[in-house]
Amino acid sequence: MKIFVTGGAGFIGRHLVDSLLLTNNEVTIYENLSNSSQENIKNLLSRGAHLIQGDLTDFDLLKKNLRDFDLVVHLAAKIDISESLEHPEITNKINVEGTINLLRACIENNVKNIIGASSAAIYGNPETLPVNEETIPNPISPYGADKLSMEFYLRAFANAFDLNTISLRFFNVFGKGQSNAYAGVITKFLEKINDEEPLEIFGDGTNTRDYVFIEDLIQGILVAMKNIHGKKGTVYNLASGKSTSVNELAASMLKISGKNLEIIHKDPRSGDLLFSEVMISKAKNELNYNPIFDLEAGLLKLFKEME
Fold it and tell me: Is 153 a catalytic residue?
């Protein structure tokens, strides 16, 4: 297949492109390199991936370069929640207007299959747990609102122009190669452990997350690609299906590392979710998504890879 990956030089993008190349796909990375570098994908380029340096705001460049592709995986986004609170107009321009540009360019080039990366942030702080794809969204940050808008545009364009589109709601992804700039709590804890510094937890640490290992997430994207035909904006949760408190996460990581470090609690951050618990039965049943790493197994592999 000939596949166009926006944000392909980012953390998730690099893992996805690596997997796509292993199965002999022709992959083009569309990337502005604002949160990554060409050095990070040097290995992927040497194995045959192509790089187009460009921005989602550049409709003409997207239109010019989206010819003859079988499928688009749209990962590029502004993902910093704090930035979205301070400058919602900037994140909206990339996350929403950029998605519209991409979809318009697909229409112009008769590209029929698009998968978009959504987020657990669309749920906000829901009234009931666990959430499933039918839970009413309640975003508490402009970033969450951006991603929800993206989902609706994928559905609208699918209905209006007979496209096949899927939105995948990513939960807390972790794995090797996550950037420090937008790192999740696991990467930040790992950095503190390596430097033998206290772990910092925002809030009392009882807030929960569903941590999904990068290999499971990539599996989810790949099975969505295989099952995209006939989907008209269908949404799926991609997660591990098990929630863990931040306090439990810190204890587990310290146990694996064998280090006895202080844990410091700081004031909660605006826009952060309180509790996350998710059902993944829809992705299992309809896509044959089958995560194999629980949190401990993923952490053990991550620590081993970082040695």
Answer: no
